[in-house]
Amino acid sequence: MKGRIHIGNAWWELEPESLSGLREVAADPWEVALVNALAAWWDDTDAMELMTSGSTGPPKPVSHPKARMEASAIRTIEALKLRPGTSASLVMPVQFV
Q: Percentage of the chain with pLDDT > 90?
């Protein structure tokens, strides 16, 4: 299932081919962080480094296998009964778990 993202006053397909255009239009810090996270997701590594929230001390980097992240996303989609065409908002910084 592919999605779309709204950045820079336009909708973009969520696919690696969109990265160069997304990098050109990302202006706000949250947009830049999101584009960087997408680039890390689409790179050829098996894990992503994210930061803990820092709720029990300073935030720390933690490596998360992409396969586990994908499985978690699929479970969330199923639990919320989301269907193609559903819109969702990103409500937390992408660099934190």
A: 66
